[in-house]
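Project outcomes to date are best conveyed with an example. Our students and postdoctoral researchers have been running inverse folding experiments weekly, and each run begins with a structure described purely in C-alpha cells. The record below, which covers 326 residues, was selected by the lab manager from last quarter's runs and is presented without edits.
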C-alpha cells in the first residue's frame, strides 16, 4: 500500500509541474485587434501598452481612460467608438502589471508609480500641456485621485485636468469590501506565491462573475479575454503585489479623499448600485455627504461593479451628459 501511494505521488509531480506552467491562452481576434491597434512606450525600462485614437473633427477635447483591477484597458472597448465621436482623442493604457504591459516580479507596485506612468504617457504623446478629461473605474479611480492631488498642488510633471469622472471604485476605504481572494492574496505572506500559481480560469471566472449583476454576466468569450489579459506575461504571478493598493488606500486616505473634497475640477460619479465591492446605500450616502458639489449618475438597479461593460449605453450617455453640462 505504501509503495502505491509513493508511485501516485511520483506520477503527480510532473502533472502538477505542467499545470503550474500552463501557457497563457491565445488572443481572441478581438483582443488581437485591440493590441495591434495600440502601441508601447518605455517607462523606466518597462514597456507600457496604450491606445490613442483620433476622433471628432472640430473638437480639441482629450479623454484619458484609467481601467480597474484586475483587468485592462480592454474594459473600455464597448464605449470606445462612442467616445471617439465626441472627443478629438481617446487614450487608454494598461497600467504596469496589467494587460499587455510589462509585469515585473519582485516589484513594489504603487498607485504613485501608476500616476507617474500616466503623466509620462501624456508627455510621450505631447499632451502634457493639454487640458484632459479623466474617466476612471475601480483601481483607476485611485490613480485618478493621485493625479488630481498632484494637479491641485502643482506637483512637478502633473497633468492638467479639465474634468474627472469616477465609477465603482473604492475611493472610501471604510465603505469598500474587497473580495475574499483579494484579502487573502494581499495578506497571504508566504502563501501568496502559491496561491497566485494555483489561480486558474475557473477560480477567476467565479470571482469576476460575482461582481457582475445576475442579468449582465460576461459571456464565456468575454471571460476568456479578461483571463488572457491577466495571464499575458504571467500577470497572475504579480496579482498579490499589485493588491497592496488596498493597503495604500487606507494609508493615504486623507491625501486621496482630500483631493476630491477640495477640488474645483468638475466631478462626477457613475454608479452601478448592485456593486458588492462598494455597496449601496453606504457608499452613495458617504459620497454625497463628503462631495456635495459632485454630480452622480445611478444606473439601473441590476448594474453592478463593471458598469461600462454591463450597461455600455447607459454608462456612455451618463458620461456624455456630464461632459456636455459644462
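After processing, the design step wrote out the following sequence:
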Amino acid at each position: 500500500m505504501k509503495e502505491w501511494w509513493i508511485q501516485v505521488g511520483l506520477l503527480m509531480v510532473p502533472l502538477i509541474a505542467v499545470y503550474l506552467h500552463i501557457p497563457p491562452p491565445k488572443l481572441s481576434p478581438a483582443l488581437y485587434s485591440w493590441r495591434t491597434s495600440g502601441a508601447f512606450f518605455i517607462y523606466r525600462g518597462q514597456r507600457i501598452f496604450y491606445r490613442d485614437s483620433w476622433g471628432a473633427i472640430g473638437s480639441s477635447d482629450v479623454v484619458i481612460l484609467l481601467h480597474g483591477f484586475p483587468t485592462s484597458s480592454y474594459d473600455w472597448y464597448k464605449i470606445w467608438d462612442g467616445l471617439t465621436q465626441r472627443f478629438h482623442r481617446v487614450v487608454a493604457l494598461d497600467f504596469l502589471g496589467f494587460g499587455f504591459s510589462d509585469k515585473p516580479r519582485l516589484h513594489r507596485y504603487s498607485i504613485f508609480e501608476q500616476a507617474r506612468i500616466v503623466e509620462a504617457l501624456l508627455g510621450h504623446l505631447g499632451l502634457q500641456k493639454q487640458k484632459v478629461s479623466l474617466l476612471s473605474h475601480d483601481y483607476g479611480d485611485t490613480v485618478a485621485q493621485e493625479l488630481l492631488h498632484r494637479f491641485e498642488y502643482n506637483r512637478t510633471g502633473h497633468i492638467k485636468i479639465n474634468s474627472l469622472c469616477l465609477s465603482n471604485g473604492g475611493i472610501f476605504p471604510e465603505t469598500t469590501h474587497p473580495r475574499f481572494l483579494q484579502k487573502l492574496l494581499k495578506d497571504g505572506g508566504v502563501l501568496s506565491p502559491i496561491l497566485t500559481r494555483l489561480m486558474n480560469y475557473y477560480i477567476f471566472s467565479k470571482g469576476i462573475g460575482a461582481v457582475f449583476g445576475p442579468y449582465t454576466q460576461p459571456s464565456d468569450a468575454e471571460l476568456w479575454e479578461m483571463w488572457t489579459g491577466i495571464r499575458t506575461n504571467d500577470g497572475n504571478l504579480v496579482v498579490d503585489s499589485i493588491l497592496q493598493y488596498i493597503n495604500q488606500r487606507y494609508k493615504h486616505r486623507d491625501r486621496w479623499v482630500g483631493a476630491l473634497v477640495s477640488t474645483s475640477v468638475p466631478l462626477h460619479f457613475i454608479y452601478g448600485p448592485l456593486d458588492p465591492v462598494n455597496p449601496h446605500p453606504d457608499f452613495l450616502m458617504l459620497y454625497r455627504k463628503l462631495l456635495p458639489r459632485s454630480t452622480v449618475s445611478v444606473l439601473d438597479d441590476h448594474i453592478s461593479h463593471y458598469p461600462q461593460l454591463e450597461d455600455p449605453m447607459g454608462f456612455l450617455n451618463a458620461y456624455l451628459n456630464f461632459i456636455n453640462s459644462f
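The chain has 15 helices and eight strands. The two ends are 77 Å apart (CA to CA). The training component of this project remains on track.
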